Amino acid sequence: MNSPDQPTHGPSLLDHRAAVAAETARFVAGLRDADLTTAVPTCPGWTLADLVKHTGSVQRWFSGLLHARIQEPPRSREVDLQLPERQEDFPDWLADSATVAARAFAAIDPDLPMWAWGVDQHARFWARRMLFETLVHRVDAELALGRRPTVDRPRAVDGVDEFLVNLPFATPFAPDVAKLRGPDRTLRLRATDGEETWLVRLRPDGFGLDANADAAEAADATVHGAAADLLLLVYGRLRHDAAVFTPDGDKDLLTRWFAHSAF
Predict the structure, then answer these.
(1) Residue 252 in this model has a pLDDT that exceeds 60
(2) pLDDT tens digits for 168-184?
(3) What are the residue ranges spanned by the domains of the chain?
(4) Environment class of 44 (CB within 10 Å of its CB; exposed 0-12, middle 13-18, buried 19+)
(5) How far is residue 69 from each of residues 6, 16, 165, measured CA to CA in Å?
């Protein structure tokens, strides 16, 4: 299966730390003059204010973990958020959250061994995870505001990989993931705007991303789509039967996978 230290398609060329800053800046820019009481359809029950608070809180919490060089699961999620009282100040607070993160990144070697809930037990896990938390919620904000979001292709490819490689470890906060098992079934995501392909093998005891699968190997079910759309698919922001995708094979397997794989 996948290497514990690298993305499935080889070492990522992305600077995740710089990308966190860029995605946050893009998020903040999109909030200018926005009504923060606007509902966010892709996060039911949330407003834009909730979305901003969550994203900035995650950035600050992850930064605290990096500063602490944690070596075991944290017992508390408490962190000094310094959240402003007025919602209209939330965008500036989110921008400052990225500054807090940048300081944390600068103070630690990304290759330092650390506890992480996913595969990669190094400090770099948290920068990569923070990037996709920020990127996906930036997309949520744009969708809420009636805009058509775009995702840079290299980030999308890396994001699909990051999601799938860590998904087997997400059961503590996404218990439905434990239902993703089966008698030797395979599901493939294939990028139509590049050569990337991801093959997931479901077994009776669980599932995993097969880093060594032959790209020509047939799968029981396949979804073809652009990398950016596949990223939104794995995060549940697009359905597998949306017009931008071409699904093939076992429809029940696709339905079951996407019903239980969100986190």
Answers:
(1) yes
(2) 999 999 999 999 998 99
(3) 16-149, 158-260
(4) exposed
(5) 20, 18, 23
The sign of the torsion formed by the CA atoms of 97, 103, 107, 108 equals positive
| Residue 1 confidence (pLDDT) above 60 | no
Confidence of residue 76 (pLDDT cuts 50, 70, 90): confident
Condensed to tens digits (0 to 9), the pLDDT of residues 77-86 reads 888 899 999 9
Return the SS3 of 63: helix
Crossing angle for the helix pair 48-68 and 124-144, to the nearest 10 degrees: 170
The pLDDT of residue 208: 95
CB atoms within 10 A of CB 256: 18
For the domain with range 16-149, which CATH number is right: 1.10.260.40, 1.10.357.10, 3.10.20.600, 1.20.120.450?
A: 1.20.120.450
d(CA 210, CA 194): 19
User: 59 to each of 77, 162, 186, how far by Cα in Å?
Assistant: 12, 17, 35
Fold of 158-260: Nonspecific Lipid-transfer Protein; Chain A (3.30.1050)
Coil, helix or strand at residue 224? strand
Backbone torsions φ then ψ of 73, nearest 5 degrees: -55, 130
